[in-house]
Q: What sequence folds into this?
């Protein structure tokens, strides 16, 4: 759900999310984007913000993987990252 | 410790005698060292060892020196690298596995420790100029931040200059690159940029600058390019050279490599080609025309990457010659830090981030990338079947420490001033840990007892320098015993015999099957590798006593080198907490623009509900640009203003993009943008 000034403006459900590795070689960036864009159709890097980020806050809920998920993910992640 | 002042100090300089403190210099005649290793390349990759991919730089080293036909890795990248630079077994220096999977046991915590000084530190303290170009992956992942600590970054490990990437892999077109401790972006604005060429240029520039400044100072240059680890991204002119070269398929490729290996004498004449794993991987003839077309392309790009990497290595070697220093330079060129990788799924992938996570990209989808395979629009990996074939004549692949498909590497060493009998072949059994003692013997430097005031643990390798004497061409191996272990798959070599566990599942199944009990639940195989070079004839059933003796020896060695506790239940190790700076945080607040936070320190949005709240000030005329992003073209998310409208975009590994776009542009002034996701 995307909201502006406290009002929801667009929401949708997604069928899948990334299992356990979002990126290995890209960084977390605020106010501009280093390396590659998440969407070549929308912009080219660095796409620096013309305004000002006053604050940016993330609130994370608990991880919701099941034990069965872990059994699959663990070895794959471990081996992928070398 | 500086020595006493050797001059004389009186009231005025006129009445005094100056004295410069002596500088540390290496033993007279100590050679320069160029230590080169490529990535994820099995024994059958380079032409020098019978492969179909030309590797003239490796040929050059082999021709000027010696080729080794029984040299071994640990079966995984960063464990091999830790063993190579410390001269100690990977578990002895905390690298039983990779740092992202580290646990709080001495063999597995990814902490090398000051008691295990690297060859960089030893040579630096003995007057060498030390440098490292390319892949790192020996720093704990929970230390990849501006806060360090930096004891286990290259500079802290004795490498005075570092230019490369910190993790296991990076995009070659727009790399995640560091110069010492600082992220850099030399590729911006350069359309022809590719990292491997850049690494060679930087290494050459470094050697030239060193020669111009301190011509007599010997160098130790560690050159470890990303090739041929995924993503396979060579320059397009190299891909062009291999067009149509793999239309014969992987089964015929094995036959061809095997025949070449016999012709070159890099496998004994009686060697048998191990059988194709029909149960797990299809034969080429059984494939459709579309599959053949796609898979051949995957191999063309891999081969191009291998050839391109060797070419750039060749430029570095040539630079040493151009400086007139080749004669007294030891070049150690190891082809691959482990066998070819089975991490790209059985059908390959245009984006290996899918392969790592068990997602198969359908062949028809992959074919859309046929023309751009290897470009910056892809992050590709070839089919497992090719990887198996490039490990000819052996069984298995990277990650599988029990078998030579995972651990046997091509190696050539040259040193015109020190090695006579150029062009020879050596078959003594050796391992990555034997390189450091070899270099110490060649340079006349003893392994230090103390480094920076810290008592050192013994180096576990043995020198291979005895093999340089032609009279010792057939000498017995001075390495008589070597254990191997990775993810519970293990083996023990002793005096020509090897006992090896049978992998309970192929690595490309990502642990989906029930794993056996790690100590007693594995089947074992037994080979007499003095007669059976490729591990084709399992003697376990006929020689149970020999097997038992070796199994016991494995446990002795495992206890000695921190291999215990054995663990194949990898899942628990992954979710185990690690001491990162943001471990356990659920609220992250930032109050200004900043870039370059490693993903290990960023909010992790996977598999949970989350909210992102941005308070922003929109300027007159409307806002545009990134508020926050993690990832990029091959996976990630971005929150940004596009033509004034807020957008949240979730890039599902370049397979699909989900987009939330506000209908209205934001007016100038303060606004709050929120994105909430309910898992």
A:
């Amino acid at each position: 759900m995307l909201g502006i000034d406290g009002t929801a403006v667009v929401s949708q459900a997604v069928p899948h999310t990334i299992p356990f590795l979002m990126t290995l070689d890209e960084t977390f960036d605020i106010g501009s984007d280093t390396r590659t864009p998440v969407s070549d159709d929308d912009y080219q890097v660095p796409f620096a913000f013309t305004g000002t980020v006053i604050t940016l806050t993330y609130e994370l809920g608990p991880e919701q993987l099941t034990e069965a998920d872990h059994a699959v993910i663990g070895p794959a992640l471990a081996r992928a990252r070398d | 410790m500086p020595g006493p002042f050797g001059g004389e100090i009186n009231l005025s300089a006129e009445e005094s005698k100056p004295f410069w403190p002596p500088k540390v210099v290496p033993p007279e005649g100590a050679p320069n060292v160029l230590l080169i290793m490529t990535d994820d390349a099995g024994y059958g990759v380079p032409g020098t060892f019978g492969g179909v991919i030309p590797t003239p730089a490796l040929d050059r080293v082999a021709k000027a020196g010696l080729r080794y036909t029984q040299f071994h890795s640990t079966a995984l990248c960063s464990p091999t690298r830790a063993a190579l630079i410390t001269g100690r077994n990977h578990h002895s220096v905390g690298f039983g596995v990779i740092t992202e999977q580290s646990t709080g046991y001495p063999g597995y915590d990814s902490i090398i420790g000051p008691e295990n000084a690297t060859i960089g530190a030893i040579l630096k303290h003995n007057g060498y100029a030390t440098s490292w170009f390319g892949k790192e992956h020996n720093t704990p992942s929970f230390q990849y931040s501006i806060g360090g600590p930096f004891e286990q970054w290259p500079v802290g490990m004795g490498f005075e200059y570092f230019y490369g990437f910190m993790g296991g892999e990076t995009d070659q077109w727009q790399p995640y690159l560091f110069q010492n401790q600082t992220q850099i972006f030399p590729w911006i604005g350069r359309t022809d940029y590719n990292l491997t060429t850049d690494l060679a240029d930087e290494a050459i520039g470094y050697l030239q600058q060193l020669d111009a400044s301190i011509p007599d100072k010997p160098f130790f240059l560690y050159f470890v390019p990303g090739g041929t680890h995924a993503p396979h991204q060579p320059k397009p002119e190299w891909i062009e050279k291999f067009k149509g070269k793999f239309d014969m398929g992987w089964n015929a490729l094995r036959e061809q490599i095997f025949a070449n290996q016999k012709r070159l004498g890099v496998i004994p004449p009686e060697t048998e080609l191990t059988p194709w794993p029909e149960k797990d991987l299809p034969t080429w003839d059984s494939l459709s025309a579309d599959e053949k077309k796609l898979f051949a392309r995957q191999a063309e790009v891999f081969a191009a990457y291998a050839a391109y990497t060797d070419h750039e290595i060749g430029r570095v070697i040539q630079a040493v010659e151009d400086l007139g220093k080749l004669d007294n330079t030891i070049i150690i060129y190891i082809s691959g830090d482990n066998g070819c990788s089975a991490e790209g799924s059985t059908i390959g992938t245009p984006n290996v981030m899918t392969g790592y996570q068990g997602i198969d990209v359908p062949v028809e989808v992959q074919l859309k990338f046929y023309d751009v395979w290897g470009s910056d629009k892809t992050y590709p990996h070839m089919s497992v079947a090719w990887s198996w074939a490039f490990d000819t004549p052996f069984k298995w692949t990277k990650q599988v420490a029990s078998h030579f498909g995972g651990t046997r590497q091509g190696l050539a060493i040259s040193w015109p001033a020190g090695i006579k009998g150029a062009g020879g072949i050596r078959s003594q059994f050796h391992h990555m840990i034997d390189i450091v003692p070899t270099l110490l013997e060649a340079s006349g430097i003893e392994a230090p007892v103390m480094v920076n005031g810290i008592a050192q643990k013994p180096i576990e390798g043995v020198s291979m320098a005895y093999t340089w004497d032609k009279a010792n061409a057939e000498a017995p191996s001075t390495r008589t015993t070597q254990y191997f272990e990775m993810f519970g798959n293990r083996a023990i070599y002793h005096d020509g015999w090897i006992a090896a566990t049978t992998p309970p599942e192929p690595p490309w199944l990502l642990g989906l099957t029930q794993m056996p009990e790690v100590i007693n639940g594995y089947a074992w195989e037994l080979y007499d590798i003095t007669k059976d070079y490729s591990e084709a004839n399992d003697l376990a059933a006929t020689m149970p006593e020999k097997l038992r003796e070796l199994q016991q020896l494995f446990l002795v060695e495992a206890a000695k080198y921190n291999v215990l506790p054995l663990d194949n239940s990898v899942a628990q190790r992954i979710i185990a907490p690690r001491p990162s700076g943001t471990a356990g945080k659920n609220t992250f607040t930032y109050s200004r623009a900043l870039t370059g936070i490693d993903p290990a320190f960023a909010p992790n949005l996977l598999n949970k509900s989350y909210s992102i709240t941005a308070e922003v000030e929109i300027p007159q005329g409307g806002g545009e640009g990134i508020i926050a992003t993690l990832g990029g073209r091959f996976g990630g998310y971005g929150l940004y203003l596009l033509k004034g409208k807020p957008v949240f975009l979730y890039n599902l590994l370049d397979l699909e993009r989900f987009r939330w776009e506000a209908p209205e542009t934001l007016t100038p002034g303060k606004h709050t943008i929120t994105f909430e996701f309910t898992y």
Notes: Residues 605-677 of chain B form one domain. Chain B touches chain A through 121 residues (CB under 8 Å). The mean pLDDT of chain B is 95. Chain B is about 25% helix and 20% strand.
